[in-house]
Specification:
single chain; 346 residues; alpha/beta; Dihydrodipicolinate Reductase, domain 2; 6-stranded mixed sheet; 12 helices
């Protein structure tokens, strides 16, 4: 079964990554590309300033870009991938769902909404069942699914591995070293970031602290309950192009040794979905790994890397890394689309 899909916000950085991942996908066929009114009516080649590290797929380059409006998307498109700015997504994503489209969204709006599943498929695929409640309460034929923030998605699988191994999480402190691509192409100027580090990313700390607790929380078939551990985050922008590196300190109710943590992460399972890597978490023995330039493309950019495990007075310390525009954005949305397909929501 090949599913006809569309990309909302197709000309942006994440939209381009989505096209790069979707064009060769065996299960998905790109049938709609939307962007702003200024791009509508142009070919994709004309509308997009292509910046991804591979050529524009020829099958996409001459497709016509339309406005981001449900009336402009063909009825036979079953799934939409959204990379819209959150202010735009908040306004138009519900309209697409009301019109009957299923939306797998990378946009930050509505991630913490009570009836919107926030999904990392390897961590909390069961939360997808909230769509039954969402459709009933909102009267939608379509549905809205979110993937988390690019920094949240890096450390949560490692926490899930520890919880799955039976360790009760009590406190989590995370400090991020985030690549400039996370801010978008025009988000950080060269004069700001070269020979520098910026120790603040607006709104980012709150996303890590709240989204992680929703992802690792419980779902009883009707509502979500946030996980009860305490999370504190500090977010920093550094002059790497791709790959978010994070320093994590975890306090657990039970004794947790570096060896136990590494074993739990190595054993944490992947899923039988095309974009889910094997292994999901790549564990390094070397204390200086992972590193963005060396390790961000593990598993085609969909793996999480972890290393530098050691015991401290604050609990277990380790580092983790993922590719922020693949696993942390476009790839996460594609993986959620694969989960929607496998679970019969399309």
């Amino acid at each position: 079964m090949t599913v006809r899909v569309g990309v909302l916000g197709a000309t942006g950085a994440v939209g381009q990554r989505l096209i790069q991942l979707l064009e060769p996908h065996d299960d998905f066929e790109i049938a709609a590309l939307t962007a702003s009114e200024s791009s509508a009516g142009k070919t994709y080649r004309e509308a997009a300033k292509w910046r991804v590290d591979s050529p524009i797929p020829e099958s996409i380059a001459e497709q016509t870009v339309t406005a981001t409006d449900p009336d402009e998307v063909p009825d036979d498109v079953d799934l939409l991938f959204s990379s819209l700015p959150s202010s735009v997504g908040e306004a138009v994503e519900p309209a697409f769902c009301e019109a009957g489209y299923v939306v797998s969204s990378n946009s930050s709006n509505a991630r913490m909404a009570e009836d919107v599943p926030l999904i990392i498929p390897e961590v909390n695929a069961d939360h997808l069942d909230m769509l039954e409640v969402q459709r009933e309460e909102r009267g939608w034929d379509g549905a809205l699914v979110k993937n988390p923030n690019c920094s949240t998605i890096t450390f949560v699988p490692t926490l899930a591995a520890l919880a799955d191994a039976g360790y009760e999480l009590e406190t989590v402190h995370v400090s991020t070293l985030q690549a400039v691509s996370g801010a978008g192409y025009d988000g950080v100027t060269s004069m700001e970031i070269i020979d520098n580090a910026i120790p603040h990313i607006g709104g980012e700390e709150d996303k890590l602290e709240t989204e992680s607790r929703k992802l690792l929380g419980s779902f009883d078939g009707a509502s979500f309950e946030l996980e009860g551990f305490d999370v504190a985050a500090s977010c920093n922008r550094i002059p790497t192009l791709d790959g978010h590196l994070e320093n994590v300190f975890v306090g657990t109710a039970e004794e947790l040794t570096p060896e136990d943590a590494a074993e739990a992460m190595e054993a944490y399972p992947s899923l039988d979905l095309p974009s889910s890597p094997e292994p999901l978490i790549h564990v390094f023995e070397e204390p200086e790994r992972p590193q963005p330039r060396l390790d961000r493309t593990l598993g085609g950019g969909m793996a999480v890397a972890a290393g530098g495990f050691k015991q401290t007075e604050l609990g277990l310390q380790y580092n983790c890394l993922s590719h922020n525009t693949i696993r942390g954005a476009a790839g996460a949305s594609v993986l959620n689309g694969e989960l929607l397909l496998s679970e019969g929501y399309l």
